[in-house]
Amino acid sequence: MDFAWNDTQRRRYERALSAARAAFPPEEPPGFSRERWRRLAKFGLMGASVPRPYGEGLGALDTARLFEAAGKGCGDTGLVFAAAAHLFACAMPIAGFGAPALRERLLGGLATGELIAGNAMTEAEAGSDVGDLRTTARPVDGGYVLDGVKSFVSNGPVADVYVTYAVTDPDAGHWGITAFAVDARTPGVTAGPAFDKAGLTGCRASTVTFDGCFVPAGAVLGEPGQGSAIFQHSMGWERACLFALYLGVQDRLVERCVAHARERRQFGRPIGRFQSVSNRIADMKLRLEASRLLLYRACWAMDAGEPAVLPAALSKLATSEAVLASAADAVRVFGGRGYLAGDGLAEAVDDALGGVIFSGTSDIQRRLVAMELGL
Ligand SMILES: Cc1cc2nc3c(=O)[nH]c(=O)nc-3n(C[C@H](O)[C@H](O)[C@H](O)COP(=O)(O)OP(=O)(O)OC[C@H]3O[C@@H](n4cnc5c(N)ncnc54)[C@H](O)[C@@H]3O)c2cc1C
User: Fold this and answer.
1) CB-based contacts of 18: which residues, under 8 Å, 6+ apart?
2) Which of 6, 141, 152, 345 has minimal Cβ neighbours within 10 Å of its Cβ?
3) For this structure, is 238 an active site residue?
4) Residue 359 has pLDDT above 90, yes or no
């Protein structure tokens, strides 16, 4: 077992970290704009795992490490999350399952960030239970007509393309769902206004409605009926790689807390000399390193072609819960000033809270782990 990065990996990480720090100075408030999206795209994040010739063709571990650098260097966690959702839940299923003409039309633009994609799966009645979709795709001459409302689409209001899922055969259950890549300008597609979210504000999200929307047969990903498997494939990428951005956030929080605990004095000494404070920071470091090992292990399994459902579920659960606990601890370490808006600490709690919900809640990850254990 080798825990060392090679020179190329080390250089790639350092380059991405310094580029992220330089491009997104901490005084700049978070938020989405096409200009900020393009700035982020310049570090090669959006095409990292997209196969060549469209993207960089990196494996899961190398891709995760890039997102870790971006999560550490860019304080706008929502914007990095938006890029990750675009890559893992949209570009990767198109790369893996799109017909050659569809790949040719979309993948170059998705990999450079010229195009933005949103994953439209969740519905009002189908959240954790993604098998209970109401959106339908009726076969017609040359394609399908989509009808339904998707209730929580990251990048929804700004996307050029949606990867979405609809029922094509109501009697086939799991095998009756089909995946589509739908151009956002298609007649019958409407994105709702951006949600007012508690965190991850650099990522706009909305509903997306399909109303008698015709999509050509060439927009189907994989075969009709393969949608559930394609969605699980994209969730594999999300659970393993997306959460690397939260390793970067944890790393940044630990560094900030150490610096603050050395500098801030109370009762005549630095607060880091009080064991309650130093233990809290030690626990933050423990969570970071434990979740980091699980995440790298899950990415390694994906790259090695090993079964990755269990390691990805463990990694997603550990990393999302770790960053939430550590963001709350960071506020405690900073005291009252940690609770002020605009300094990135109170915001880190809200940004972390989303992580225990999307890509399958913590309860769903525990359920996956239990099922993998044969329970
Ligand atoms: C920031 C953010 C970004 C998102 N981005 C996207 C996106 O881009 N595309 C998209 O399609 N969706 C997206 N979602 C939606 C997300 O996938 C769902 O919110 C999530 O799957 C949970 O579904 P739900 O909200 O309907 O909650 P519910 O499924 O109603 O769950 C409510 C509670 O019940 C628990 N629960 C449900 N079923 C079980 C069970 N079987 N066992 C144990 N506990 C259970 C859950 O853990 C949870 O605590 C996003 C959500 C957030 C917060």
Assistant:
1) 73
2) 141
3) yes
4) yes
Q: Mention every residue, 6+ apart, whose C-beta is less than 8 A from residue 277.
A: 261, 271, 333
Residue type, 290: A
Give the pocket of ligand 1 (CB within 6 Å).
Answer: 85, 119-122, 127-128, 152-154, 200, 205, 354, 357-358, 361, 363-364, 367
Residue 1 has pLDDT above 90, yes or no: no
* Residue ID of nearest Cα to ligand 1 atom 38: 128
CA-nearest residue, atom 16 of ligand 1: 358
- The confidence score (pLDDT) of residue 331 equals 98
Cβ within 8 Å of residue 127, ≥6 positions away? none
The residues with which 139 forms a beta bridge, in sequence order, are 144
* Distance (Å, whole) CA 74 – CA 310: 30
Report the C-alpha gap between 107 and 60 in whole angstroms. Answer: 18
Question: What is the average pLDDT across 165-189?
Answer: 97
Q: What is the mean pLDDT of residues 52-57?
A: 98
